[in-house]
Amino acid sequence: MTTAPRRSGAEQRFPVVVVGAGPAGLTVGNILRAAGVDCLVLETETRESIERRPRAGVIEEWAVRGLERRGLARNLLERAQAHTECEFRFAGERYRFEYTGLTGRHHFFYPQQFLVTDLVREYADVRGGEIRFGVRDVRPHGLDSGRPSVSYVCPDSGERRTVQAGFVAGCDGARGATRAALPPGRVRVARHDYGVGWLALLAEAPPSADCVVFGMHPRGFAGHMARSPEVTRYYLQCPPGDDPENWPHERVWAELRERLGAAGAPPLQEGRLLEKRVLDMHGYVVEPMALGRLFLAGDAAHLTAPIAAKGLNLALHDAFLLGDGLVGHLTRGDDTGLAGYSAACLTRVWDYQEFSQWLAEMYHGTASGDPHRAGAALARLRRLFDSPAAAAAFAEQYLGARTTG
Ligand code: RFL
Predict the structure, then answer these.
(1) Distance in angstroms (rounded) separating the CA atoms of residues 220 and 252
(2) Distance between CA 29 and CA 15 in Å, rounded?
(3) Is 127 in the pocket of ligand 1 (CB under 6 A)?
(4) Domain edges within the chain
(5) How much distance in Å is there from the Cα of 178 to the middle of ligand 1?
(6) Is any atom of ligand 1 closer than 6 Å to the C-beta of 17?
(7) Which stretches does DSSP call E strand in 272-382?
(8) Selecting from 3.30.470.10, 3.50.50.60, 3.40.50.1980, 3.30.565.10, what CATH number does the domain 6-83+105-191+283-358 have?
(9) Closest Cα to atom 23, ligand 1: which residue?
(10) How remote is the CA of residue 208 from the centroid of ligand 1, in Å?
(11) pLDDT value, residue 9
(12) Closest residue to atom 37 of ligand 1, CA basis
């Protein structure tokens, strides 16, 4: 067991300070606690808020197995739905795509807030990890030095506190403080803008199909994804920066009916819209994902637009490697995991970024207004159903089945 002596107040010290209690940060924290490593998780939101925040729902099988191996998938395995196929709708027809038959793998559907609830309970209530919610103005210091620290404003007293850290795990998402604290010029940030927006919707309505549905339509892409028997996520392509207020209830359902309409498709089960926000589709990758004693993980290091439902999966992949690497260093003096961390993560990150671009063109080409792009997008779609080799390649990428996590 590696536990550093701790003192109170401004001089507290932890072998690892994890910034952010999302899937990445909580998974790292859980791996550290399981190995007896002391750590502190700092989170700007309240526990109630992170346990209720709806986002992802699709988890790849290798990621579920990775959680299971670390004792973190008990509820997930009991409650998640396993999906074996998806459906494409285009040119007024429905096309089922059975990916499990091609890969032997499933997708698991489990709302992200359920996973976060499981992870925070395991970390704080079972494994005895320390976590501070509601902290403000988190600032990493001395990242490049051998003695980093993190300061934050305490929600109760309003005082700034500083904790010394052996390592800082930057797991604070796309708008966090750790990536922003990287000295300019020390890392490269590669960005991609897809030039489209998605209206992300959560409807209080049961799913309208027994699998994920993708609609490619001249009016724009539409998506349908079950979240629970009572709640369904929908997406509608829209202009980037569009105002959700431009999308009243009637317009949303009329567009969904139109874009997801196909011969023999069951009618959509409509319901109250619980969430309506516009996401501009863009991505970025920070290289390398480590600087000195700071290691970035998850959305803090790379953003994958939800086009291919990969972000949560990548966050878990990073967290497995970072957690294991920190445990190796802190308990056995083995630096291999930390030394290879960035390169090992980035292989999968770039693979998924490329797949997102490929998929984005197939989803959005039809509505691009450019007949050449529209024709090519349709050819890309048809190939999935004409060519076993193309279908197998798609299934492998869609399931993240090529590399193991
Ligand atoms: P998170 O989940 O954003 O967690 C970061 C945590 O850090 C906190 N925080 C800070 N804490 C301390 N100090 C600061 N300065 C802080 N700033 C922020 C935040 O409050 C938060 O608790 O990042 P993480 O852990 O890297 O996890 C990434 C995933 O959340 C994300 O990639 C996915 O949600 C993306 N995504 C999907 N991914 C999938 O794999 N499958 C999907 O089906 C899927 N669907 C989606 C998605 C993302 C969506 N949105 C909202 C962008 C659907 C949507 C609509």
Answers:
(1) 13
(2) 11
(3) no
(4) 6-83+105-191+283-358
(5) 14
(6) no
(7) 272-287, 290-291, 294-296, 302-303
(8) 3.50.50.60
(9) 173
(10) 26
(11) 47
(12) 56
